[in-house]
């Protein structure tokens, strides 16, 4: 089976976010594989181990993203692709990303593409379904279970807490929800092996993409931090009195009840 | 210049979700006086149409088909693209719900347009409109402009207030017949896990439990309080990992993002990943035995104490308040 995983390099979840010059400060920040993409990588490896084939992890970005690709290779992926857009694309949005990724994938005949259901930085969750649509294949988002039998696929997906059980078929793109699996940590031998696994780097020219074709449809005009919350009121006194006061405050001061 | 705006209405178990009305309010702002056309898709949805008119839609188009009884991206995609083809809207608004998140990128891709997801506020009107959306799990915000083409957004539930309902308002309800073919996904079953009644992501009140809840049974008093307040029960990852509750209740960076009017965190320490899922709630109440717990830093009101003492007392007090009101 020809399996691709779409991976994004994101800020570590523990990082404090600072803004300067209208941009998120990246200096000194730790970067990780987007946590939802880790589920996708793990699932891809399990599917390959059960059904044979090859897992290719694919990301788009700059040289820095090599580190996250190597991590995915250390987990067990077979090959990696970096679509390096550093010099070609200044402003991008989900349209841009999906277009470039689908141009790369269109002649690769993937049977299965996996991605995270959302990236924890941009948080739009658009790129997976957009890529599927551009490739003309079906997609299922926020999956929590995947079973493949020949070309038939049984899936459970999370729908705002409910579970939808569905049937579909390959080729298919799925996006991973938490609960799909427990992503493995790269093992030491895995890390050693990853260094020798193929990592291909391509640029827009290699994909015959003109910069005008990928001009973003939307534009971020400002990035800012939410207003700092003032310290709240910790109530004092007898517990019963505190509870009474709280109900009163919620009713009369905050007016939420 | 006034714009025609298409708004997708969304029903759940036979009733329209609030976000359908909120989307009409968002559409109003983008339309600058242009026509607002709500769309309803399903196997039998016509009787819900007048409700959308009362909340501000000028017109409603329904597409009814047995294949639209359950949502699939193929079925809904075909129906909606037929409506878009007929109406040629200049803007489209969806709710940022499971359905909206799944369907909107497909439609945007098909139309080759941008899509601004998870909008929590709109500043300005029409072409000048700027869309505000949280990024980095709510740790920052960005303002986004649509450069050209159709303005397509999804709005986060509970953030944009619906218009005041006008029971006297009337509007045309028409149906469009669309051939729905070649569905690549077949829904076998939907297992309802979420608590009946109030939807966690749309709830005005959320009572969330953490590790301090200690067991599955420990959620019972939280549920009781939620019932009294017409709210929903949520949980931290800690509580889910410890198997006290289903992951469908999880609020946080992984899990659901909620922005209720009132969020009561009981026995939740307030890890940064949890805060990502609830810090934009209007009023946050923290109940925790540990006065140093991080959750108190984001709380508007805090009680240092045992949730098993505090929550039942709160339930009683709110009951009294309801009786007196």
TrEMBL record, chain A:
Residues forming the Electron transfer flavoprotein alpha/beta-subunit N-terminal domain are 21-211
GO BP terms: namely: carboxylic acid catabolic process
The entry's keywords: Electron transport, Transport
List the PROSITE patterns hit by this protein, alphabetically: ETF_BETA
Q: Name one Pfam family in it.
A: ETF
The answer to whether the entry has keyword Electron transport is yes
Q: What does this protein need as cofactor?
A: AMP
Q: Where are the transmembrane segments?
A: none
Entry-linked SMART domains = ETF
What does this protein's UniProt record list under function?
The electron transfer flavoprotein serves as a specific electron acceptor for other dehydrogenases. It transfers the electrons to the main respiratory chain via ETF-ubiquinone oxidoreductase (ETF dehydrogenase).
Protein's name according to its UniProt entry: Electron transfer flavoprotein subunit beta
TrEMBL record, chain B:
Q: Which residues form the Electron transfer flavoprotein alpha/beta-subunit N-terminal domain?
A: 5-195
GO molecular function, a single term: flavin adenine dinucleotide binding
Task: List, alphabetically, the SMART domains matched.
Answer: ETF
Q: What are the entry keywords?
A: Electron transport, FAD, Flavoprotein, Transport
Binding positions (FAD): 211, 236-237, 250-254, 267-274, 288
**How is its cofactor bound, per UniProt?**
Binds 1 FAD per dimer.
Q: Does the keyword Calcium apply?
A: no
What InterPro entries does its record include?
DHS-like_NAD/FAD-binding_dom (IPR029035), ETF_a/b_N (IPR014730), ETF_a/FixB (IPR001308), ETF_alpha_N (IPR033947), ETF_asu_C (IPR014731), ETF_asu_C_CS (IPR018206), Rossmann-like_a/b/a_fold (IPR014729)
Where in the sequence is the signal peptide annotated? Answer: none
The record's similarity note reads: Belongs to the ETF alpha-subunit/FixB family.
Q: What is this protein called?
A: Electron transfer flavoprotein subunit alpha/FixB family protein
**Organism in which the protein naturally occurs:** Psychrobacillus vulpis
What are the leading ranks of the lineage?
Bacteria, Bacillati, Bacillota, Bacilli, Bacillales
């Amino acid at each position: 089976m020809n399996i691709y995983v779409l991976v994004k390099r994101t800020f570590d979840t523990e990082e404090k976010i600072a803004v300067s010059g209208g941009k998120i400060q990246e200096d000194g920040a730790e970067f990780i594989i987007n946590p939802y993409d880790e589920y996708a990588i793990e699932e891809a490896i399990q599917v390959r181990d059960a059904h044979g084939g090859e897992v290719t992890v694919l990301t788009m970005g700059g040289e820095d993203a090599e580190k996250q690709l190597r991590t995915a290779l250390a987990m067990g992926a077979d090959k990696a692709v970096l679509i390096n857009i550093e010099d070609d694309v200044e402003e991008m949005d989900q349209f841009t990303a999906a277009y470039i990724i689908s141009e790369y994938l269109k002649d690769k005949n993937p049977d299965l593409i996996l991605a995270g259901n959302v990236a924890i930085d941009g948080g739009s969750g658009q790129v997976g379904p957009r890529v599927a649509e551009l490739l003309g294949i079906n997609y299922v988002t926020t999956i929590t279970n995947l079973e493949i039998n020949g070309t038939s696929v049984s899936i459970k997906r999370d729908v705002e807490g409910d579970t939808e059980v569905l049937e579909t078929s390959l080729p298919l793109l799925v996006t991973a929800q938490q609960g799909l699996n427990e992503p493995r940590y790269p093992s030491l031998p895995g890390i050693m092996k990853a260094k020798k696994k193929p990592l291909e780097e391509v640029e827009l020219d290699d994909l015959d993409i003109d910069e005008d074709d990928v001009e973003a449809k939307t534009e971020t005009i400002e990035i800012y931090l939410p207003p700092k919350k003032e310290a709240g009121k910790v109530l004092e006194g007898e517990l019963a009195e505190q509870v009474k006061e709280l109900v009163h405050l919620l009713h009369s001061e905050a007016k939420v009840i | 210049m006034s714009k025609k705006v298409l708004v997708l209405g969304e029903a759940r178990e036979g009733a329209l979700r609030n976000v359908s009305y909120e989307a009409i309010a968002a559409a109003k702002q983008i339309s600058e006086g242009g026509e607002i056309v709500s769309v309803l898709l399903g196997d039998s949805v016509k009787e819900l149409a007048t409700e959308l008119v009362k909340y501000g839609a000028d017109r409603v188009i329904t597409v009814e088909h047995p294949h639209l009884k359950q949502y699939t991206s193929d079925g809904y995609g075909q129906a909606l693209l037929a409506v878009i083809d007929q109406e040629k809207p200049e803007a489209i608004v969806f709710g940022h719900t499971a359905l909206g998140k799944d369907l909107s990128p497909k439609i945007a891709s098909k139309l080759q347009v941008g899509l601004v997801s998870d909008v929590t506020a709109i500043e300005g009107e029409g072409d000048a409109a700027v869309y505000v959306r949280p990024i980095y799990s709510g740790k920052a915000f960005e303002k986004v402009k649509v450069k050209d083409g159709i303005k397509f957004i999804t709005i986060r539930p509970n953030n944009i207030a619906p218009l005041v309902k006008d029971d006297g308002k009337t509007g045309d309800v028409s149906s469009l017949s669309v051939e729905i073919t070649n569905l690549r996904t077949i829904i076998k079953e939907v297992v309802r896990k979420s608590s009946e009644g109030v939807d966690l992501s749309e709830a005005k009140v959320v009572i969330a439990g953490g590790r301090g809840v200690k067991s599955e049974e420990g959620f019972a008093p939280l549920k009781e309080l939620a019932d009294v307040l017409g709210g929903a029960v949520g949980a931290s990852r800690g509580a889910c990992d410890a198997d006290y509750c289903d992951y469908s209740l999880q609020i946080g960076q992984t899990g659901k993002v909620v922005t209720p009017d009132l969020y009561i965190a009981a026995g939740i320490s307030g890890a940064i990943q949890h805060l990502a899922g609830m810090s934009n709630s209007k009023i946050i109440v923290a109940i925790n035995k540990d006065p140093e717990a991080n959750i108190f830093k984001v709380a508007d009101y805090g009680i240092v104490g045992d949730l098993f003492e505090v929550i039942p007392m709160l339930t009683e007090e709110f009951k009294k308040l309801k009786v007196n009101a």
